[in-house]
Fold this sequence. Notes:
Helix content: 10-25%
Distance between the termini: 25 Å
Largest sheet: 9 strands, mixed
Number of helices: 3
Structural class: alpha+beta
Order of helices and strands: EEHEHEEEEEEHEE
Mean pLDDT: 96
Low-confidence stretches: none
Amino acid sequence: MTDYAPPDTPLSVIHEDHEILLVDKPSGLLSVPGKGEHLADCLLSRIQSVFPTALLVHRLDRDTSGIMVFALTPHAQRHLGLQFEHRRTKKTYVARVSGRLEPRSGTVDLPLTVDWPNRPRQMVDHENGRPAQTDWRVQRYGDGETRVRLMPKTGRSHQLRVHMLALGHPILGDPFYATGPARAHPRLMLHSEELRLLHPDGGMGMSFRAPVPF
């Protein structure tokens, strides 16, 4: 990743209280530092410069934008971590994919594993892959593309990207999985739009959204 040029955009805070912080991550910014000084700039370090107690809970891919939650106390980090682990959180993404995705809704149930010779790429592997499920629902059809809402039931690396590719509809602008005209977009057209979780202080259900930028 020698061509890392993170966007110089101000921090976009969606919600802040005594336990949790929700922000809108821009596309092109790492969630956490990579290996090497040139990959030090990331959302976590930017947040910790303003909120020194902020702790990581989950990640989004560098090229994916949208909502992320950070803990502001160790208690909140444990509480949220267990919610993600036990799939009590609900995440909704919006993507623009190549071609006309039909039918208008469905579920992809394909196990995934790392494609070792080509990492960080992932691939479908029915022998050794870990279970991965994604629900989809078409929002609308465009000119040679489909806007789709994606609801992952699991949280595997690159899950949405590989599942859409497996259906024959790669996400537009995907540097790993799209080819030809589908790849020729200014960014990966994948955005984490909504996150539903239980608040670490009292367990109240809350829902947060980050507007789709494409």
